[in-house]
Structure formats: structure tokens, C-alpha cells
Inverse folding.
């Protein structure tokens, strides 16, 4: 165990959700191994007290009061990310003097790579470790201007990311992508991804969450939210009271547009918005639902944590046939279809309900295979090798 080493977590653009439970689970493991953790917010650096309950921790910490609302448009978020990084730059001298051993980025997006990049210029011995979990294609669904900006920012972040000492990638495909784009193999470590296994096991079914189908994810065009409605429109011809629950959040303009489309299709009674959920309630909802549908068509989809959670809970799960899923689901754990197969997917759901096939036995076998503590251990093992 390495003691008295300090990790600075780059949180300059955290919003009101705070630190997600899965991140806190990793950070709790870091603390158990003797590391002191701090978080960089725009106004100052806050120490992370000992992490216990990962679901209530953020709201109990002083940094939480400084966070902005997450319910903002994409353009507003871009401006916010820029201004928050500028504010944080005021503290760069203090960051340098604080003698942190590691600066840790929770993602490799541009707004979380600027500060570490600048820190490495002035303090080369600080280890920069970061997560790389997706690429950003130019031609995904959505606002073309936002897509172009995201693509430009992504490629700019790749330039800055070359200064990172450790890049934790969640798949071999992403490792190969970075290597082909000039990154050194010694920088790259495949650590995978995970789900909240212990909490998932504790959750119980509840009749009040007995939805016919469930979607979990961001309310965003790239996640196939409008394809969900096309499928639902077909199903309701056979099952008029069929209920699709939507668990997740999104920016206000997208949610407004999505609800207008629901109203246009006369599906208001068939769609239930659950908002963003965590902990026992989240997994109780998943376990209580009959089926799971996730029609992301994004070329940047890399793992699909929500999909794995549903599959591990034993729900029949329907997805588009995306390349990353092929290596993860090898034994018929999911039903996958070519992108745009609206009719086939609707018929599959109708078939499932006709025969009441609501149990996914192959999927249940994945429970326990992926844990955040294990990911934390893998990351620290790589960090410790550099520190030694």
C-alpha cells in the first residue's frame, strides 16, 4: 500500500448531479489504499473527506453547493465549460505548489483536459491519468452545428491528451483507435467498465414499477429516442396500454422537442418520465420492468452501462447491432438488429409479450463479472507502477 500520495480529481465542470456513485466507489477504493483525494472546482480545491455512502456523499460535501444545474442546453454547457476552466486557471499556481502526485480526469473531453495539460507544462513529475471511453464521430444524429463543435473539440482534446501519462480505455477497440492515432502503447491501459453489482443485488422488484419496457440513458437524439417512439407507435396497435418508461435526463430543448413528438403520436398515456435515478430505486425500477430497449445508433457507443445493468438483472434487452456489443454479449444475452429495424424490433417485443418471455437467463450470468472496485484496483495498479 502506497501512503500519503495525493490525487487531484479534475472536477471543474461538475454539475448538480455531483460525483456519480460509480466514480465515488472507485475513489473510495483509492482512499482505502492510502491515497489522499482532493477535487478541483472552479473556485478552489476541496479535500474529499472519507467516502462512505456513495449515494448521499456529494450532497454532504461543501463543494456541492458550488455546482451549476445540469439541465442546460448544449450551447450553454459549452460556454459554462469554457468559463469554468478560465476560473480554474486562476488557481494554477496553487495547484502547482500543492505538490499533487496525480491529477485525474474523469473523462478525456476537452473541458477536463485543459487544466491537466497546463499543469504538465509547469510540473512534469505530476502523473496525469485519465479515462477514455468514447470517440466523437462527425455524422451522428443531432444538431449538425453541435455535432461539428463536438467533433472539433474532441480532436483538439486528442492533441492535449498526448501529454497524459496514463489513459485508461474501456475497450480494445478504443485502445487500437488511440494507437493508430499516434499514442504510445505505454500510455494505454485497458481497464474495461463496470456496474454497481452490490446495489443491484440488494434491489427488489416492486409492483409500482412494473413497466412494460424501460429505457435508461440520456434523452438525446444519438441514443435513438425517436426510434423508441416509432417502435412504441407500432406496439400500441396490438397493446394499446403498453407503457414505456424513460429513466434519464437531458437538456431542456431536447426534452421539449421529444415531448412534442410524443404528443404528436398520441402516446402521452404510454410514456412515463422517471427522471434521473440512482441507487436502490434505480435498480428496483430496472428489475421490476418487463423488458429493456436501448436503440442508440451512435458510432461513439462503446460499452452501454445501462444496457449491461438491465441484462444482468435478467431483462430481455433489445438493441441495435453495434460493434462494441459483439465482444461483450457472445451468448445470446441481447436481441440485436440492424440500425433502423423499427418493424422487426416492434414485432419482437410483441412476440415477447404474447409468450410472456420476460426472463433473460443468459444475461443473469453476467452479474458479478464487472465491478467498480475491480476497475479502481486496475487503475491504481497502473498508477503505482509509475510511482515506484
Amino acid at each position: 500500500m502506497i501512503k500519503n500520495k495525493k490525487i487531484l480529481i479534475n472536477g471543474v465542470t461538475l454539475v448538480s448531479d455531483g460525483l456519480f456513485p460509480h466514480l465515488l466507489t472507485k475513489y473510495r477504493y483509492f482512499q482505502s489504499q492510502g491515497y489522499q483525494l482532493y477535487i478541483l472546482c472552479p473556485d478552489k480545491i476541496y479535500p474529499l473527506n472519507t467516502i462512505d455512502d456513495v449515494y448521499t456523499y456529494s450532497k454532504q460535501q461543501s463543494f456541492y453547493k458550488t455546482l451549476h444545474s445540469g439541465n442546460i442546453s448544449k450551447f450553454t454547457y459549452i460556454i459554462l465549460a469554457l468559463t469554468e476552466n478560465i476560473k480554474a486557471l486562476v488557481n494554477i499556481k496553487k495547484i502547482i505548489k500543492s505538490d499533487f502526485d496525480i491529477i485525474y480526469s474523469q473523462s478525456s473531453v476537452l473541458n477536463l483536459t485543459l487544466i491537466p495539460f497546463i499543469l504538465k507544462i509547469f510540473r512534469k513529475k505530476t502523473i496525469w491519468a485519465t479515462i477514455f471511453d468514447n470517440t466523437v464521430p462527425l455524422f451522428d444524429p443531432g444538431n449538425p452545428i453541435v455535432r461539428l463543435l463536438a467533433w472539433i473539440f474532441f480532436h483538439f482534446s486528442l492533441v492535449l491528451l498526448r501529454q497524459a501519462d496514463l489513459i485508461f480505455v474501456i475497450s480494445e477497440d478504443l485502445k487500437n483507435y488511440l494507437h493508430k492515432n499516434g499514442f504510445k502503447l505505454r500510455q494505454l491501459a485497458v481497464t474495461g467498465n463496470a456496474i454497481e453489482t452490490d446495489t443491484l443485488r440488494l434491489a427488489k422488484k416492486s409492483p409500482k414499477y412494473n413497466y412494460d419496457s424501460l429505457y435508461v440513458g440520456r434523452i438525446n437524439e444519438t441514443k435513438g429516442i425517436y426510434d423508441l417512439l416509432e417502435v412504441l407507435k407500432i406496439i400500441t396497435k396490438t397493446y394499446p396500454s403498453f407503457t414505456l418508461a424513460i429513466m434519464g435526463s437531458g437538456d431542456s430543448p431536447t426534452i421539449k422537442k421529444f415531448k412534442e413528438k410524443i404528443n404528436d403520436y398520441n402516446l402521452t398515456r404510454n410514456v412515463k418520465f422517471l427522471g434521473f435515478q440512482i441507487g436502490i430505486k434505480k435498480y428496483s425500477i430496472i428489475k421490476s420492468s418487463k423488458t429493456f430497449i436501448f436503440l442508440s445508433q451512435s458510432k461513439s457507443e462503446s460499452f452501454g452501462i445501462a444496457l449491461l445493468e438491465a441484462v444482468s438483472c435478467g431483462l430481455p434487452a433489445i438493441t441495435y447491432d453495434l460493434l462494441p456489443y459483439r465482444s461483450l454479449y457472445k451468448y445470446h444475452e441481447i436481441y440485436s438488429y440492424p440500425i433502423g429495424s423499427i418493424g422487426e424490433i416492434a414485432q419482437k417485443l410483441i412476440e415477447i409479450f404474447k409468450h410472456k418471455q420476460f426472463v433473460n437467463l443468459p444475461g443473469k450470468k453476467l452479474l458479478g463479472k464487472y465491478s467498480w472496485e475491480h476497475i479502481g484496483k486496475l487503475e491504481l495498479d497502473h498508477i503505482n507502477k509509475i510511482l515506484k
In short: The domain at 197-364 is CATH 3.40.50.2000 (Rossmann fold). DSSP finds 16 helices and 13 strands in the chain. The chain has two domains: 5-194+371-387, 197-364. The mean pLDDT is 91.
